[in-house]
Amino acid sequence: MPATSAPRRALAVMAVLPLLALAACGYGSQAKDDDTAKVAAGAKRIDGLDSVRIGYFGNLTHGTALVGNNKGLFQRELGGTEAKYAVFNAGPSEIEALNSGSLDIGFIGPSPAVNGYTKSGGKNLRIIGGSASGGVSLVVNPDKITSLEDVKGKRIATPQLGNTQDVAFLNWAAEQGWKVDAQSGKGDVTVVRSDNKVTPDAFKAGSIDGAWVPEPTASKLVAEGGKVLLDEATLWPDEKFVITNIIVRQEFLEEHPKAVEAVLRASVEANEWIDAHPEEAKAAANEQLEADSGKALPAEVLDPAWDSIEFTDDPLAATLDAQAEHAVEAGLLEEPDLAGIYDLTLLNEVLKTAGEPAVDDAGLGAR
């Protein structure tokens, strides 16, 4: 799976802003611990570790982790080392857990990954693999908006000021020739910053005319009568852009490479199983969502949301680099130094063993 080429000029982008502005999925900031992993009797520990702590969000865009947990793939690869899970609701809290040493490996979106790396001066984190692409759409009220031109003058929600989808929409609007003040959200389009968990209610009440949001929020809006006006994937070459990465603490990577490799093997196995068994994988992800949150997604939300996401081992490094550059161009970020943000050495070893082609770091690998 070769890395995706840089996107066209009109592409949506992401901002890399301070952590407080990067609750990528908008579901709060608390982590839920899950200590239910089962270790096989007599299995050997990896790197002498009692456990490896893995974090992810309760979102379908983190389906690799949901399926890997549900099907026991991480635990199988870790042997006698327990796979312990923490379910997060937002990027900043997961980055904080990684930086504090209370989490070892995490599935996370591009904005908090880049922000966490740059905030530490490139010393705390590394992106070690890909997980998912896509799963973001502009959903509108079809009674008010019937074309892309109709978006002008309307009220469009994004999850949070400066988060990935917020800046994607701001840049798309700018490419239409519309002027919007990024901070206030006022202009030719009114940008309403709305937490994903309340956006469906706002849409139903008519206080917003549409939203540029990730799954499953987009499909929840469709279930409320909305229409997908634009799938962000269509703006990218090959219709691929990074939405979820796998990151690790650099100290953990240096001290426990075998454990990291085991997690990557499980991730590759999960993505392969998802590709081979899409219906079973969708059910497994939903089952894990219910186990983690107490609530499964209904079929009218689950089915279209799952179909809009592509699970991939490729971190799509070129798209992350391009997204960051567009954030700079938008005036929302000083030029970041992303050299060394990727270390795909172990992933490529896993892929080689599996008979798959290597993936590329777009020149941003550790040297």
Q: What's the quaternary structure here?
A: single chain
Order of strands, main sheet, comes to 1-3-2-4-11-5-12
Averaged pLDDT, please? 87
Biggest beta-sheet profile: 7 strands, mixed
Number of strands: 12
Q: Which consecutive residue ranges, at least 5 long each, have pLDDT under 50?
A: 1-30, 33-37
Percentage beta strand:
15-25%
Q: Into which percent range does the helicity of residues fall?
A: 25-40%
Please state the structural category: alpha/beta
SS field, number of helical segments:
13
Question: Element order, helices and strands?
Answer: EEHHEHEHEEEHEHEHEEHHHHEHH
Shape: globular
Distance between the termini: 22 Å
Radius of gyration: 19 Å
What can you tell me about this protein's structure?
- Strands 1-3-2-4-11-5-12 form a seven-stranded mixed β-sheet, with helices on both faces. It has a five-stranded mixed β-sheet with strand order 8-7-9-6-10, sandwiched between helices.
- With 367 residues, the chain is an alpha/beta fold.
- It has helices at 63-70, 73-78, 91-100, 110-119, 164-175, 199-205, 217-223, 250-255, 257-276, 278-293, 299-307, 317-329, 345-353; strands at residues 32-34, 51-57, 82-88, 105-108, 125-134, 136-140, 155-158, 190-193, 210-214, 227-231, 242-249, 309-311.
- Helices cover 36% and strands 18% of the residues.
- The protein starts with 31 loop residues before the first strand and ends in a 14-residue tail after the last helix.
- It contains 13 helices and twelve strands.
- The longest helix has 20 residues, at 257-276.
- Helix 7 crosses helix 11 (299-307), helix 9 (257-276) packs across helix 10 (278-293) and helix 9 crosses helix 13 (345-353).
